[in-house]
Structure formats: C-alpha cells, structure tokens
Amino acid sequence: EKGGFDSFMEKEIHDQPQAVADTLLGRADASGRLELDELRIDPQELKDISKIVVLACGTSAYAAHVAKYAIEHWCRIPVDVELSHEFRYRDPIVGPDTLVVTISQSGETMDTLMALRYAKEQGARTLAICNTNGSSIPRESDAVLYTHAGPEIAVASTKAFLAQITATYLLGLYLAQLRGKLFQGEIKDILADMADIPAKIQDILERKDEVISLAHAMKDTTSVLFLGRHVGFPVAMEGALKLKELAYIHAEGFAAGELKHGPIALIDEGQPVFVVVPSPRGRHSMHSKVVSNIQEVRARGARTMVIAEEGDTAVGEFAEWVFRVPETKTLLMPLLSVVPLQIFACALAGAKGLNVDQPRNLAKSVTVE
Ligand code: F6R
Q1: What is the pLDDT of residues 301-310, one digit of tens each?
Q2: Which residues face 309 on adjacent strands?
Q3: Strand partners for 227
Q4: How remote is the CA of residue 181 from the centroid of ligand 1, in Å?
Q5: How many whole angstroms separate alpha carbon 38 and alpha carbon 276?
Q6: Three-state SS string across 123-141, please?
Q7: What gap in Å lies between CA 152 and CA 156, rounded to an integer?
Q8: Looking at the whole model, is its pTM more than 0.90?
Q9: Cα 114 from Cα 367, distance rounded (Å)
Q10: How far apart are CA 136 and CA 75, in angstroms?
Q11: pLDDT tens-digit readout, 22-51
C-alpha cells in the first residue's frame, strides 16, 4: 500500500507527477480549448463575475496564494485570498458578482465549510476545488472542479497541493478563455508547458538524494527560514509549514522583499536560510533582487540553501548548497520548487526518528472549528 516506500508521505511525494497529469487529463481539446463540463455553472454567470475570493486553510491556502498571481495575470479579475476562519468573522464584502472559490483536499474542513455557507448566504456564486468526491464542501457548492491526486493518507499535504495549483490554473485559463483575455494559442502554450511538468517533477525526484543528504546533515537544526518572492513566496511559506509539522522545527517563510523590514534581524552566524529563486529568464529585476537577498543574508553569516533554475549561474557564488529545478514558466515554478522542500522536511523528520505520516497533535481533516 505504501508502494515500496517507508511512509505514505514518501509515496505521495512520488505520486506527484501522476497527480498533476491526472488533474490535467481530459480538460482541453487538441486546439487547447478548455472544457470544464463538470463545473455545473453557467458560463454566462462566470463571465459576469467581477471578483474572486479564494478561501482555504493551511497548505490549501498556500495553493490559493499561488493561484492569485496566475489568475489575476491571465484574467485581469481581482482575486482576494483569505483564510476561511478569518473571512467569516469580519463582515466581508461578497455578493452575487463574487465567485467564491474554496480549496480543500478533504472537502470536510469545518472552517472552510462554514465560510462557504456564509458566502452562500451573501448570495455569492461558489466553486469548490476538492480532492474528495462527494464530500461536504463540493456538495454544498454551485460548482466543483476535482483535483485527481488520489487519496492522500499522510497527514501533511503534498500531492494535493500540486493538484490544487494545477486545478486553479485550469480555472484561471478557463476564465481567461471565457472572457477573451488570452488568445487560444496562448492558452494552448501554457497547457503544453503544464503537460511537461510531470516529467520535470520526475527529474527532481530522481535527484532526491541531494536533498536527503542535506536533511541528514541538518538534523540538529532548531530554526530554518525560507525566503521567496512572487509565486516563490507561498512556496517559502509551504516549505516552512512542512518543516514545522513534520520535523517540529521552528520555521518561517517570508516574502524576500520583507527581509529588510524586520526579519533580517534574525540572521546571525549559522542561521539556515532557504531561498526560492525565480527564473532568470523571467522578469530580470525580480531575479536579481532575490540574488541580492541571498547575498545580504550570507553577508550576515547565514547558511544559504538555494532552489534555482538549471543554468542560473548568478546564484552559485553566494550559495552553500544549490538544488536545480528544470526550466519552466515563472508561474509554473511552484510546481517544481516546492518538491525539494517537501523532500527536505520529510527526510529531516525521518532522520529525527519521527512518524512522518502522523505528526503529533494533527489530524488529517479538521472537522471542528
Ligand atoms: C498541511 C496540511 C493542512 C491542510 C489544511 C486544510 O500539510 O495538511 O494545513 O492543508 O488543514 O485541509 P483541507 O485541504 O482538507 O481543507
């Protein structure tokens, strides 16, 4: 049942190429035209919405955070991301022109279910992105887009996260298609790049030993920081969350640009810092700013562990350790850059002799508020 691995978590990390491929399967025709028939929502209604609110908790909320960058860029619709449990208690502005998207692996997270019910009372259209067929959240939503990650057994989410990002991107492309915001050829190109992602994840998995040896060498670490910018920012937060929940290590993810506004005071001799570097082929200024951030923390004594694209020669000089991810579009990078961070947390927890599938104090689905 664990497919030859020691834990479900390892198996599920290795299921990720399939999770992404299955979530993409059968959604578009040969010309790249998306047909999300299962949505059960009138395309005209989707055309008329003027804002999107994405509600989720934990790892699913980081998927939402990634989705915001893509959907706003492709569709030019404002996207707010909010933790489900915060949303409901602050008199949020939602109405019939709002599409409320919930993201939940289990479909049973009480905080998200209650937020969904609240949004419905306010007259919002609701769409669930969910991994569990027939669970409460999709059942109570107007529309549903299933992720096809397969059952996720380990408490900490991995493959569901990649499938959620994939599904939100399909939604973003579909909305862009409906609203005429992207040419069909552009959508086709992005879908083709997404179709290449599973093989690229596989390439990362084949080099997992580079990450596992680092994790073993760091097993006595008590604090790790993660930095990222743009879509790398939620990846940094997810890397930190995995490490907290699996290895019980204090970890924090920051937006790299925020460093000088406070967190840089945390850096002293030997502080480990992971940096998720955007593609040098994307927006040049963004890449060079993150490289400067590596320099800044390194100059203050940090140990710098860098996730960078193949061929990015700018990072080598300031990095103690570099893990290379294959080239892809900037917006697709989270689907690759999070994988070494998952492997790191899992291997470090393993090195500490912890139960990676069932971390202390946590439950797979949080059915209380
Ligand atoms: C983290 C993790 C949790 C869940 C969160 C939401 O590894 O598993 O943070 O992501 O509890 O759960 P779902 O997606 O089932 O609503």
Answers
A1: 999 999 999 9
A2: 325
A3: 254, 275
A4: 32
A5: 35
A6: CCEEEEEECCCCCHHHHCC
A7: 9
A8: yes
A9: 11
A10: 29
A11: 999 999 998 889 988 778 788 888 889 999
